[in-house]
């Protein structure tokens, strides 16, 4: 080999080494990364829950796992992350060879993953042959943002509705097929009903339109970052997510689903950020301060609530207090008042330790709540409370639920995941009693206030996880006609809650409202399974479903389904597909709140 060839090979080796070092440089930046102290666990049982595994590790074995990363549900391997090398070594020693659910676990030290942003940049430098990427490169930043946030922005509204209606029908057909497989006794009924309901075993009503399609969102969370085109700090939406190597933020003035007042509020805060001389937070190296701005808008009176969130980094308490004072002054201006800013909160994001709650917004100025209306009732909304993001659409959704329910003045409604009480309070005049359950205690306080504010005296609300407090709440339902309504988070109901609903004979009907029908199918199937040792009560069978378009210009759709209790449990003939009790038990320990790291932009915006 010549000296020239040798030098060339050495240079190529050095470049490759430098590239590898760059991919792992984030480990030496000083900020904590869950990739630093990672353990790979293999040989896991077929059925297990993440919460169940965490209890084994942190409670029974005394380990200190801070995060678990599973590639997909049911995977036989995953990563567990720890705070330091000592904790990781302890975990490997305890888990390697440990017998759990009839399986012997294998635990080994895992290599950290390369920085996705660096990998993506290197891929871009190496190849530009991807057709889709080429198409995106030919699009303007505005078009790429619309594609990411409102993918149906260039489709006529009637066509959007047709697409969503078709998607809902396909999902419900999938549900039907699952029931067909798990319960042989229902096959004849399913087949005969499919002839009546256009291929489904129950009635699917036409999709309900959103009364408004422009500026319909009453809440948005905007990211603070750098605009790739201007290079300036910008308050808007990301064009992608960090895991795909995209951190650029684009302005939102062209997006049709955001109101003009909300856009003006965003620009007002953007002006403050640019004048502050404090950079936006960077997920690439954990530097910077400004993280996001949440805007809530009342469609009742136009009032605006702002929640400003930042990483304090090394700012002193004195500097933080001065910053809060500046925010109060900025949002007390005539321009802010013209935007309708009536409430401002500040949230200093701090590192969340194991077992600790995250940071909470601190009230800075103005009202502590804003007010909105649904079906003629007024609702007080706190910064973190759940409230349907399309107020006009919520009128349609809740009225549809009332019509589905077939309740009377003797009925008792169990409102599960009740939030600020919107559904239960809208039902109140149609039933004898409403009992609401909600995890967030602040939302329960809002629900109680809302009941009193609207002079409604037949509603009671209780704080706690649905799966924990449901039995005691159901004990308060003395009516002969008890109906439950559930409006759970995107991931659906906890299996324990499903089990308790199945096993409580007094619940005769159930309305399931889902913002993610694809995720809800699993709950639908479990509600409809044949009786077993775990699911002792008679099954719920679907009767009617109504899709409601709460999210124009996006792929998302809300779905309300009425289930009725099967009159009698069909005796087993020994041929029906068996419910795997281990699977149900494992699901009982599955947490409904999944970690949402690297959430795609569309999911983040539409939640």
Automatic annotation (TrEMBL):
| Entry superkingdom | Eukaryota
Cell membrane is among the record's keywords: no
- A Pfam family this chain is assigned to: tRNA_U5-meth_tr
EC number assigned by the record: 2.1.1.35
Q: Which GO terms describe its biological process?
A: methylation; RNA modification; RNA processing
Compositionally biased tracts (Polar residues) = 598-607
Residues noted as binding S-adenosyl-L-methionine in the record, renumbered to the chain: 388, 438, 487
Name of the molecule in the record: tRNA (uracil(54)-C(5))-methyltransferase
Q: Which organism is it from?
A: Danaus chrysippus (African queen)
| Biological classification of the source | Eukaryota, Metazoa, Ecdysozoa, Arthropoda, Hexapoda
